[in-house]
Design goal:
This protein is α+β, with helices and mostly antiparallel strands. Helix content is 27%, strand content 31%. The protein folds into 2 domains: 5-159, Aminopeptidase, CATH 3.40.630; 163-316, Gcn5-related N-acetyltransferase (GNAT) (Aminopeptidase). It has 8 helices and 15 strands.
């Protein structure tokens, strides 16, 4: 398969991932030395899921890196952080540490995203001294700590015209626009395959307003639904004590990596706190996505009809 190149540096090529990169990627993500400041080393199954969900998608979150000899040396992170910012990062083989590749990649990515975002962000844990040094050297400034990570930000200039469409996006609470209930029920049904009647019933209960749950939230661009999520008592799993649950989180593919999911999650946490519920749970198969928005892995839970457990996350609004 022909390689699709993102950018080229003095020593490296940044390209889209291929399915054939799986084993090389696994060697990196299963290496305790590489993962020491990130997450526990990945299993082969986790690596397959990461490749499938983060790399082999229409709008990748990560890109493969190879040297000029064609050897796979790691990957870079380059995706929307919020509506105005892009997150940058890198994960490289220990064999190439100390060669200046991380700085070289950072400069190349900053050039690549110029004119597309108003700022760039690098996140790292406090122990990652090299990452912090590279961030500062490339004009990033320390902004504080979020979810245990130090956040460094670099302003890229004026917000580009490319993102003006985002200004039209509106987040709504379904209870405040009941006329959208049927349209919303059909949209969630199409995305998740859950019976339409289940969404219709849940949204009807939401509109009655007899309790804090269920609730439904939408992201709209004009009359188009581009994202949404809900809050229900239990998202079809065996941990009935962990309630209520954020469920059905979805953003249209052509609107991903623009911070919509993050804004929806922020809205639901804030709104539920105002209703007296400061702790929410969320069941997912994703790794390293919800942490970005302040959620923490809590435990494994068995989904109804699923062969393997899924990851349960928790969020406490303070």
């Amino acid at each position: 398969m022909e390689r699709k190149i993102l950018c080229v540096t003095e020593h490296l090529i940044v390209r889209h991932f291929l399915q054939s990169d799986l084993e090389e990627l696994y060697r990196i993500l299963s290496d305790p030395k590489v993962m020491a400041c990130l997450e526990p080393p990945y299993t082969h199954e986790q690596t397959e899921r990461f490749l499938r969900e983060a790399a082999l998608v229409e709008q990748p979150l990560v890109y493969a890196v190879e040297d000029k000899a064609g050897q796979f040396v790691g990957y870079v992170i380059c995706h929307g952080y919020d509506a105005d910012s892009v997150e940058l990062g890198w994960v490289l083989k220990p064999l190439v540490w100390g060669r200046g590749y991380a700085g070289e990649l950072t400069r190349a990515l900053l050039t690549e995203v110029e004119g597309q975002y108003s700022s760039a962000v690098i996140e790292c844990v406090p122990q990652q001294g090299v990452t912090k040094a590279i961030a500062r050297k490339n004009g990033f400034h320390y902004m504080g700590i979020g979810d245990g990570c130090e956040i460094y930000r670099k302003e890229l200039g004026r917000r580009p015209l490319l993102h003006r469409k985002e200004l039209k996006m509106e987040l709504i609470k379904l209870r405040e626009q009941p006329g959208l209930a049927e349209k919303a029920a059909r949209w969630f049904h199409e995305k998740w395959g859950v019976p339409l009647e289940a969404y219709q019933e849940s949204m009807a209960d939401c509109l009655k307003g007899t309790g804090p749950v269920p609730q439904w939230y939408l992201a709209l661009e004009g009359e188009r639904i581009v994202g949404g999520l809900g809050v229900i008592e239990n998202d079809f799993h065996d941990r009935k004590d962990l309630s209520p649950n954020v469920c059905a989180v979805y953003v249209e593919e052509d609107r991903r990596c623009q911070g919509i999911a993050g804004r929806l999650l922020e809205l639901v946490c804030r709104d539920m706190k105002e209703k007296g519920t400061d702790t929410l749970y969320l069941l997912t198969d994703h790794d390293s996505f919800y942490e970005r928005y302040g959620w923490k892995f809590f435990c494994l839970a068995q989904g109804d009809g699923e062969e393997t457990p899924s990851r349960m996350y928790i969020h406490r609004e303070v």
